[in-house]
Amino acid sequence: MRLLGFTLVAGLAASAYGQKVKVMLLGDSITEITCWRPMVWDQLTTAGLAGNVDFVGTMSNLQGSCSKPSGFDVNHEGHSGWQAYDIARNNIEGWVQNTKPDIVQFMLGTNDVNIGKRNAQSILESYTTMLNAMRAANPSVKVIIDKLIPTSWSDATVEAVNTAIPGWVSSHTTSESPIVIADCSRAAGFTNAMLRGDGVHPNDQGDRFIAEQVGPKLIELLSGSGGGGGGDGGGGNPAATTTAGGAQPTAGCAALWGQCGGLGWAGPSCCSQGACRVSNDYYSQCQ
């Protein structure tokens, strides 16, 4: 556990030793009135990281139908019916200046399409405005951008936004302030069966799908291992068999105490020192 805490602090230099890492979960009703947030908290707990995390935001509600894990931090910045266009121009600066988050995760754009009738370029421009505000508040902020979940009618603009997100990430990610993608799109496996009857919001199955995309990316950033160019990532969970003196070469391998595996991990699976030991499904470390 102490090793995980060490890696967490090393990976997030913006947070002083002993302070919790501030994470903002930003979005619309797909963030506010659904149940994937506590599911992600369960993943953080399993990874031994929940005690090191402070969810921040002006909202603190959780739907009564959602399971509430022990110790769950209810704060978030999900606002039903709100558009990325308006958040970018009227709200994000104040929110991030007040909290100065270390990590921001967001899924926004569905209301821009359905209510605002905006095009993909407008939504991407709002993303850029939000990113600039995040970095003004914390130059080393780490960002998880979600590809949008589909609508039941497979809206073409939603699909266009998802297609454009990797290019946007490539243009804006930096080593100081990396951006990674949590792929919640139809192409990644989100189906109509994961939507409620309204064709827009996730049901329980959809919540689990979102949590399975967001949680591992958040854990990667918390452990200081994310941000390698914004890829959607694959990866496995190696057993504790890779050693510095073994058959695998050390070039390109993770350093001592670095991450070497876990669900969604796309980095090295070998260790330059020690062995890659499994802590849980989401995190393995060179020890």
UniProtKB/TrEMBL annotation:
Compositionally biased intervals (Gly residues): 225-237
InterPro entries (alphabetical): CBD, CBD_sf, Ester_Hydrolysis_Enzymes, SGNH_hydro, SGNH_hydro_sf
Top-level taxon of origin: Eukaryota
Signal peptide start-end: 1-18
Recorded GO CC terms: extracellular region
Keywords: Carbohydrate metabolism, Hydrolase, Polysaccharide degradation, Signal
SUPFAM superfamilies attached to this UniProt entry: Cellulose-binding domain, SGNH hydrolase
Region (Disordered): 225-244
Residues covered by the CBM1 domain: 252-287
GO molecular function: cellulose binding; phosphatidylcholine lysophospholipase activity
Biological process, per Gene Ontology: polysaccharide catabolic process
Protein name: SGNH hydrolase-type esterase domain-containing protein
